[in-house]
Amino acid sequence: MSMKEIASWALNVANLRGASYADVRIVDERARSLATKNGKVGSASDGESLGAGVRVIADGAWGFAATDDLKRESVEGTAAKAVAIAKASARVKQYDVRLAPEKAVTDEWATPCRVDPFTLSVEDHLALLLRIDSELRAVKGVTLAETGLSFRRYEQWFYSSEGADIHQTKYITGAGYAAYSFAGTEISKRSYPNSFGGQYQNKGYELIDELKLVENARRIGEEAVALHQAPQCPEGKFTIVLDSSQLGLQIHESVGHPIELDRVLGMEANFAGTSFLTLEKLRTLRYGSDLVNVVADATPAHGPGLGTFAYDDEGVPAQCTPIISNGRFTGYLSSRETAHSIGETRSGATMRAEGWNRIPLIRMTNISILPGEKPLSFEQLLASTEDGIYMQTNRSWSIDDKRYQFQFGCEIGWEIKGGKLGRMMKNPSYSGITTEFWNSMDAICSRDEWTLWGTPNCGKGQPMQTMGTGHGASPARFRAVRVGSAYKGT
Amino acid sequence: MLTADQARELFARVLKHSHADETEVILSGGAHALTRFANNTIHQNVAEESAALSVRVVVGGRTARASTNKLDEESIRRTVAAAEALAKVQAPDADLLPMATAAEAGAAPDGAPSRYFDETAAITPEDRAQAVRSIVEVASKNKLTAAGIYSTSAEAEAILNSRGLEQFHQQTSSEISITMLGGDSSGWQKANSPDARNLDAASLAETAARKARESAAPRELAPGKYTVILEPAAVLDLVGFMFWDFGGQALLDQRSFLNDRVGKKIFGEDITIWDDVTHAWQSGAPFDGEGVCRQRVKLVENGVVKRLVYARGTAAKIKQSELAAKLGEVAATGHGFPLPNEMGEAPMNVVFEGGPAASRRTVEQMIASTERGVLVTRLWYIREVDPYEKILTGMTRDGTFAIENGKLRHGIRNFRFNQSLLHMLSSVEAMGEPVRASGEESFDMVVPAMQVKDFNFTEVTKF
Question: Checking CA distances to B378, which of A16, A429, B1, B51 falls within 20 to 30 Å?
């Protein structure tokens, strides 16, 4: 039985029951997760999942139903249920759903993947993790060492009542580790290559070799312990330099989320919130300084980011949309349903679902700040900074429900004095208002310092679903930023 | 939906393919539906039916897990083989206990109510649409727009192992969450229950609408320390961040804020907290990830951390460690996560006692006793700033009010807070009647509203 035949059962029933539009996504997914903790395997698990989701418009409203039973009776019943749900939705509507037109495509695409991680030896994976663990715990004072690897293969077939037939396969690989040190009244933490699980890209096992995991472990353990002796980050207004991983998260929270058009239009109001980027701000708002150029780029040319694909989950080809151009706000993330609200005749191709049992939502693709055009290395950026604080690797993050006021904490900081890194600092944090912050950026490093980071678990929607997003960034400098408010008054 | 007989039949099929020393199966399945609305329109409406099979094996003192949702014979065979292969490449773990027997699982504590209601399982998309219509009518009457959800589900969960343990649980759940939006203000309410008949959509809508109306034209207050009155959902979303530290494994790993604090008074005298799955307003299965029955555990008594929760393996490790002398009674309490895992265990059915009945205050009484303060409906985007001092940051949201001279005066722009939970729970001036509360940042609990002095608002946003 082919996936196309399974999908045709659903599309036929949806049509017969009165749907004006229907699409079917069948997803076959495989995942492997390995973790160690303090010299032992912490967890080792494999998982697989197969199912189909049917999305329809009937009586001008949406319905969706999903099943993991792909026998004909079940698939047809699921399609019928989706139509019945749509007709129930139509009882409480203010307008009919209208989709921007999109040419139906037949195509196949797969993530470039040099080494399929599922063909490799699990013993070798565990041996790598235990080597890292050994390096971390060789440092006296490290009280907890955690390491992890994860691999995912996501294969999707998309069919629509308009004739689309798209088959895509993605490999997602991730790795990272953390060292904790408990002493006195402090639990300090250092992570590599990034916090909360590490670095993730749409790649095969070749990512692991690129990350230099073992080589950095000793340093990370030493920094976790050294933080106890470091002075507390001061409070006040300072020039700050952010490392590229922290800047990636800053982009995610203060650019990527507010540009989601469904959020702007109130569709996420009960959970994730709305956005300060109301529609009249498009092309008028000065979002950042002249140096701020941000794109939403899902095309493979941008890199193997978690937001890279050939087609979104409405069958629209991947695009690159300018979001901030020389500081001016120029673009949203849109869908077939929302494009018309900003005068567009075509979707921006940003709709993705977590799996077969969730509807696609507008999601960040690769929301990246472009590197500086003039050559500027990290050393040169420091050298041109007389007095400031360098902050590295996120530890806490929080922003209000319109995406204005934020606060971030990092794992480690260093003072910058006379163009050089000086003393280590603990508990660095900074806060501000989104547009004021981005308008204070006065330098960004160039291409050699740019990394395409992966955030594997961005949460959105009800029921909740998570999605991988990509964020490219180089280290950058910001002036007169409020620092240290996380510990003020505590 | 999965029945106990079907669970046994699936387990038998798994066992046929297993060559392991021990085999355990976790089965889950059910039907979930959610009607979502925004701008006074149902804009998303979803339903799912699914089942999952998760197999754990023990081979020569090594364990691993593999999962699938494909229940044909070949997929089951492949899943068992995947678990066995993952187990065999590891070194034996001297701390790994044999799987629990039925006797070791213990008896469920007395009094756990049934949490399955046919009326909830039978709710249709049309029923949910009708409820949403009543919410939208309240919005329209108040010239507001409504956003939110109405969800229902019926699910079953089973754990069986080759040492004779069998556990089975069925439950329904229902939830309504409503945000009412005005031009420059909003209000919010949320409730859930295993029994949908306990949810009153129109009443929740009226309260959310009132909050949106009354907080219109918000003014800005200066950041600083204020007496706050936190409604139960706000309390829940804050305190939820500490319960992941109340497990024995967290202390073994030295990642808990309770390192060196068990047996010590770290909260106010009025704080007593249980973990109690049998409480009438709690929900969830009465057994843990190994099938061990969840015991009632008094975690905190009059501000003193009395006891932690323990998975079987954690309890055994601690008894052989230096920690044993510092932690009081150490025994398996039935709070373990499915093995293998790094976290160990955590209390998941938290109940705050709320102080003596005579001392309890309504939110209105707390307001009336406040000369200058802030009423908080809910909190948002809470994250941990400091893991040992348990400093949390986040924002107020959807109905934040200034209190002056015992009255609500006007809405205010939302604040960012940076607040230590140790300080907060030592600064409680009054508590309300504990209620079942639901937020967004933590699991549901039974908590009271709280009046807290010197709550630390550090910055203010633009709305």
Answer: A429
